[in-house]
Amino acid sequence: MNAVYLESVGILGPGLPDWATARRVLDGELPHRAELPRPDPPQLPPNERRRIPQLVRWALAVAHEALAGGERTAAEVAMVFSSSSGDGEIVHKLCEAVTAPEREVSPTMFHNSVHNAAPGYWSISTGSQQRSVALCGHDASFAVGLLEAVALVLSEQASVLLVACDLPFPEPLAALRDITLPFGVALLLSPVPGKRALASWRVSLGAGPEPARFPHMLPAALATNPAAQALPLLAASRGGTAQTVSIVYVGDRHMTVETSPCR
Amino acid sequence: MRPLLMTQFSTANPLGLGRAATLAALRERRGGLRAMDLDGVALDTWIGRVAGVEEEQVLARLAEFDCRNNRLAQLGLRQDSFDAAVAQARAHYGPERIAVLVGTSTSGMEHCERAYRQRDPHSGALPGWFKERYSLNLFSVADFVQRYLGLSGPAASISTACSSSAKVFASAARMIEAGYADAAVVGGVDSLCLTTLYGFDSLDLLSRLPCRPCDAGRDGISIGEAAGFALLERPGREEGGVALLGYGESSDAFHMSSPDPSGDGAYAAMQFALQRAGIAPGDVHYINMHGTGTPANDRIEDRAIFRLFGASVPCSSTKGWTGHTLGAAGIVEAIICALCLEARLVPGTLNLDRIDPAFASCVTAAAETRDLRYVLSNSFGFGGSNCSLLFGRPA
Lengths: 263, 395
Fold this sequence. Notes:
Oligomer: heterodimer
Mean pLDDT of chain B: 97
Largest sheet of chain A: 8 strands, mixed
Radius of gyration of chain A: 18 Å
Low-confidence stretches of chain A: none
Radius of gyration of chain B: 20 Å
Distance between the termini of chain B: 15 Å
Largest sheet of chain B: 12 strands, mixed
Strand content of chain A: 15-25%
Structural class of chain A: alpha+beta
CATH topology of chain B: Peroxisomal Thiolase, Chain A, domain 1
Number of domains of chain B: 1
Shape of chain B: globular
CATH architecture of chain A: 3-Layer(aba) Sandwich
CATH architecture of chain B: 3-Layer(aba) Sandwich
CATH superfamily of chain B: Thiolase/Chalcone synthase
Number of helices of chain A: 8
Low-confidence stretches of chain B: none
Number of strands of chain A: 8
Distance between the termini of chain A: 21 Å
Number of domains of chain A: 1
Order of helices and strands of chain B: EEHEEHHEHHEHEHEEEHEHEHHEEEEE
CATH topology of chain A: Peroxisomal Thiolase, Chain A, domain 1
Largest interface: A-B, 62 and 70 residues
């Protein structure tokens, strides 16, 4: 399998307010602080901005960080968006609305409920007419999104912005899903290494080995967030040597990523 | 791109169960829509229901997946010997070399709505029988299909609103081209639920009559439910038949629920599909429109088609037969295109009395029989998500 290149990263999670901080936390240079960040409001007119759902805010914040100061603009990269549970707040409000006697649904909430709301708002706010897709693989949503992104990079020789994001459900749905901390990540992947490329990745599916351990300096509760399955891979990609990382895939299968540093 | 043969395909949709029932309804101009008759829903609209979905019992070994959407998925998988065809491909390629990519917009949302009606009046807790993973979660349907078919390759649910099960073809082509799979089961399953019915109603997009795509008096969509599946593989194990020859995707960058009046996104998706297939606009013999029956969609799609194809390529919408099956629309219309290619049928448009006089493309109402080589299918979704697929009979 050919390699793809990790060009840049956007990240948002508890104690991980941006990639510059997160990489130092993963390297052990900075202690982890359990502060919950708030995503910056997206670049949209105020009346549009107000209507942006939480999950989209998170997705757009990490997507913008991954492209900031780089060689690629939004108009040049396809987007692969992956999330296990979408926007739980919206699911909850829609379910309450349609089971109430009046059955009054907010039209804005309804169109915001689509799983591709994040790529849709990304396209609207950046003007990019690039193709995009939105996927789900339950607990394996990060690996499912990564495979889609890598297949797109390799088959179309295109640069792809992979965005994975999962937020806790509100009650009563929260009781059904063990996601207690929010996390979002954006990875810019390309078919040939750019000047700032961080690592080369060779991605394959197989029966094992067991998934990598979650970085010890991060809160254990983050390990159940599907999008946070990117963190062991990012931690290994920070190392100065080639490493092999295993990530949970669908069923009893695992995804194996051979990562090598780019000089 | 290198062609991918559709070596088997199956469907369960408002026209009936299986390919033969679907083709017969197209030929006989028998629509599958009926006045709203779901329990307790007072909306003045028409819907497309699939007969037998309520009675379908999911396999005992997959009982925890039971919900309307997965019952519908199973009903689709059982038609047209689809499961048997996949079993043969599985023996040939190995279960880990066949991808499962299923489009859905709401998955088991209907099951979640049921759970919300049974919340504990004191604590607000949802009932114990409701498991997010096996119904509400979008992956539920792809998980169910993969397990039902005994496959273990790449798997995903793709959810881009009404382009979901067109996008699965693009994803499958990439997965095979990149070497992650040798074949793919692509599909789409969406089932009726209150959220989509009342949601589209809140946007004033529901017609009070059976939807009338391209008609001067069209006033909205009729929502339908459907399942469809196709087995895609490179020529070799089998030859001939209908092939996916190209796909094209784009984003509108305009609005979450209104299509871009310029039609640039729709135009780009169609153009990319032609480019990838290496085919000129004049080579296309039929276009199956997205054609939802809303004033804006059909007007903008007509302009985009005219800009690329002129007025010589017959185009029509088949949503007057099936309703708009949302996340299943892409695969249902891909299957209709395949049936039409095989039967040399240009199906025309149902419920079309008077073509919108502002339209410039070659919209057809009546069916005609003609030799078809290449056909194009359009799917456009909320979020400005566009996908066009080009099918044909390879030389």
